[in-house]
Amino acid sequence: MILIAPILSMLAMGLIAAWGHRNIAPERRYLPLQWSGHGTVNWRAPRLVALFGIPVVIALVMGLVAYLSRDNPGDRDTALVWISIIGPGIEAFYLAILARAIESEE
Length: 106
What we know:
Elements: H1 4-23, E1 30-35, E2 41-46, H2 47-68, H3 73-105
Helix pairs in contact: 1-2, 1-3, 2-3
């Protein structure tokens, strides 16, 4: 039953990333991925890496949490639910920052 939250979370992050792929600067092959403390872009990544990197990292973290806490199901389930809640928010926040950075460059 608890696996529903991570699955829905990954689906939501995938849909958010797909929306970003379609709507955020579709003509650009490379998108900003890292900014300095002053707000300038340090480096860019290929489009798919920039947009789908966070869901991949979150999926790896979920897998690692599930594996490392396999002996303690209560803690595992709590951690997975929290990661499932936070993950789509992180993806949406990153896309908002990305869209604003691209808009200010133009």
